[in-house]
Amino acid sequence: IRDDNPVLFCVHKHLYGSKGRKLVESSISITHVPEEEYLVPIGVADVKRLGRDVTVVSNSLMLHRAMNVAEALDKDGVSVEVVDLRTLVPLDSDTVVESVKKTSRLVIVEESNDRGGWGAQVAAEVAGRAIGYLDAPIRRVAAPDVPIPFAPVLEQAVVPDEARIRAAILELVR
After folding, report:
1. Non-local CB neighbours of 129 within 8 Å, separated by 6+ positions
2. What confidence score (pLDDT) does residue 171 get?
């Protein structure tokens, strides 16, 4: 990581061990790791999928779930643009705002809690800079305001899944 400031780099536990194979629950292939040096710019989001009906902003494991939902909805005629924030600080709100100006709808998908999660900042940025472009309220899909459980079955009950992401998208486009 090329930055003169302290950097916190987080990898989701469900992404461990995914090198060299396709993540089971995702359509994103992560098998290619360049041998040569490559850089991912800090503070620059990446539009992973172009769309016209709704923008979905996410990162980490939730990005994989959002991509799966976007591909499934494409078969139903719903065009979903998926933006991978990649970094939360600095936040690339310009990419998010430009996407929302194009699609007029925004769904924010995050694993963190609804109250105090990074999605609130994304929503505030869009509301402050592009509220006139929105055709529907901003929708957030996040964990409820409880501690994320360690037990897998309980964790699955609170962490956003593809069904919740799909429902949020369809709520805005229909």
Report:
1. 93, 97
2. 97
pTM: 0.86
pLDDT of residue 29: 52
Class for domain 43-173, per CATH?
A: alpha beta
Tell me which residue has tokens 């040096």.
Answer: 37
Model pLDDT, residue 24: 47
| Rounded Cα gap, residues 87 and 43, in angstroms | 6
Tokens of 7: 């950097």
Cβ atoms 149, 84 nearer than 8 A: no
CB neighbour list of residue 148: distance below 8 Å, 6 or more residues apart:
111, 113, 155, 158, 159
Place of tokens 């929708």: 139
The answer for 60, left when phi > 0, alpha when psi is -120 to 50, beta otherwise, is left
- Tokens linked to 34: 């360049």
pLDDT band at 39 (very low <50, low <70, confident <90, very high): confident
Tokens of 159: 């962490």
pLDDT for 107 equals 99
